[in-house]
Amino acid sequence: AVGGTVAEPKVVSAAEPLLLNAARGKEVDRPPVWLMRQAGRYMKSYQAICEKYPSFRERSENVDLVVEISLQPWHDFRPDGVILFSDILTPLSGMNIPFDIVKGKGPVIFDPPSTAADVEKVTEFIPEESVPYVGEALAILRKEVNNEAAVLGFVGAPFTLASYVVEGGSSKNFTKIKKLAFSQPKILHSLLQKFATSMAKYIRYQADKGAQAVQIFDSWATELSPVDFEEFSLPYLKLIVDSVKQTHPDLPLILYASGSGGLLERLPLTGVDVISLDWTVDMADGRRRLGPNVAVQGNVDPGVLFGSKEFITNRINDTVRKAGKSKHILNLGHGIKVGTPEENVAHFFEVAKGLRY
Length: 357
Ligand code: CP3
Description:
Pfam families: URO-D. This protein is of the alpha/beta class.
């Protein structure tokens, strides 16, 4: 120290996770990488937990199990993002919408709302009361991952949640939600409004507990024509983003809208930081159509992971080249499929993490 003063030891804070830098448009030396549904049934370690704990709700609502499952891909593949193991339907339990996720069948809503009186009964979501295990799990994940990767939270988009809830589960033809949208739109709007304010709250809660970026899944936006997207999805996405940005301006928000090739020019209007593309859009076209202000995520076809290692490598290289040298988070165009060889997932991460711009 000069002049006899003793310098305080500098607290060296860990560098920001790569994924956050890419989401914010900062310079990075490679695209960060994680995979949607990276924790799940393609993993033998997850299958073992499913045998011991056959109930999805138990696996996703018990803090120790949530942490253990979220960390399975972290231990095996070291992704740049560690997503909370949960489900977009999890908050419904706190909104007076009883549900279950049944093996072989998927989500089941026991008493699907269809009238104004039913929607009236949907209650406001108070995360700290209804899903305290989510906050506890995120706090533990944040410690465990220790900024070597970003801890990711997520929520369902209002229209996608409304689709499950009104249809009573997964749907092939979406007739119930369309009937409601096109004959009694006011009822649907009041449900969407409730989901939007609740999900804004839920994102804040997740961020306060440890999530460093949050992805919004609008998996059923693909069902909407552009004019209907503008009426039934976009305003509510925007409401969520505006509301969260007021209190958490630096929290990167990622939007995944499945089948959104026909909507790309509209997606940046939501105000999110990152747009996650599915594989039906060429990455170079997507980049051009989305404009320079948002980052992109994606968009390798999940089916590619069933190809040879060489094929997987080529597709990664193609996507990364087309995405350009910044503002790209490498990912699949949708979740990993059941049956994907774990060694191919390992190869995907190995190749991705070895890339340099
Ligand atoms: O990405 C991750 O690793 C985090 C975990 C995660 C799950 N669901 C766990 C899960 C995430 C991000 C979700 C989000 C989710 N849930 C979405 C949006 C993403 C997408 O795929 O479009 C949707 C639409 C749901 C609703 C949902 N949950 C469905 C349709 C199903 C049944 C799927 C099936 O094939 O059975 C679920 C159950 C579910 N959620 C599973 C997992 C790993 C599979 C069932 C199980 O593991 O027992």
